[in-house]
């Protein structure tokens, strides 16, 4: 089971939520930690997860999840509603890169994803989710490639693929229907010919009897 699947199973499913996307990250800049707060639990992996409740009205959230070294458990550390998200900065709109920023009401988080592809997929799903669920003020997406915000996106490509498959299936059914129609016409012609032959043969037989 992948880490994201495990996070969804352990942290979101029990609360009647589903994880829409997740990205493994590291901070680009270290946060200043108060002296008394030092002495943590060692190395850890960090994930930013996007989730939505199954019950209506749907509540969308972003959650920071950590897994500490030597532990198989995942722990929720920070939580924001989608309404608290003010800005998503993709850093470079001309090429794929792993860096991105999330600005909330409470402050700015600067991240580096484990890969540029993982970051792009996360931002794309995040943008799509904001467009769907944010009824009032939507967060601003800046310095993001156009493919992530529409156009030839993964979501649009998937939808186009499904539409294309449906069209091909429909065309195949239509062609099959046309072939069946032509076969039925040929069968009907053959039946008419056979009936006419039978009538002619009967007339000839009656004629010979006379």
Which whole number gives the mean pLDDT?
A: 82
Radius of gyration (CA) equals: 31 Å
Largest sheet: 8 strands, mixed
Tell me the helix content.
40-55%
Count of DSSP E strands? 8
- C-alpha termini separation: 91 Å
Q: What's the helix count?
A: 4
Q: Strand sequence of the main sheet, in spatial order?
A: 4-3-2-1-7-6-5-8
Gross morphology is elongated
Strand content: 25-35%
Order of SSEs, N→C? Answer: HEEEEEEEHEHH
Which stretches are low in confidence, meaning pLDDT under 50 for 5 or more residues running?
A: 35-39, 152-160
The computed structural class is: alpha+beta
Q: Could you explain the architecture of this structure?
A:
- This protein is an alpha+beta fold and 210 residues long.
- Helices cover 42% and strands 28% of the residues.
- It contains 4 helices and 8 strands; from the N terminus they run H-E-E-E-E-E-E-E-H-E-H-H.
- It has an 8-stranded mixed β-sheet with strand order 4-3-2-1-7-6-5-8.
- It is elongated.
- The termini are far apart.
- The model is unreliable at 35-39 and 152-160 (pLDDT under 50).
Task: Compile the SSE list and pairings.
Blueprint: H1 3-12, E1 17-27, E2 44-53, E3 60-68, E4 75-81, E5 85-89, E6 99-104, E7 107-113, H2 116-133, E8 140-142, H3 146-149, H4 154-209
Parallel strand pairs: 5-8
Antiparallel strand pairs: 1-2, 1-7, 2-3, 3-4, 5-6, 6-7
Features:
4 helices, alpha+beta, 210 residues, elongated, single chain
Summarize the structure.
With 210 residues, the chain is α+β, with helices and mostly antiparallel strands. The protein contains four helices and eight strands, in the order H-E-E-E-E-E-E-E-H-E-H-H.
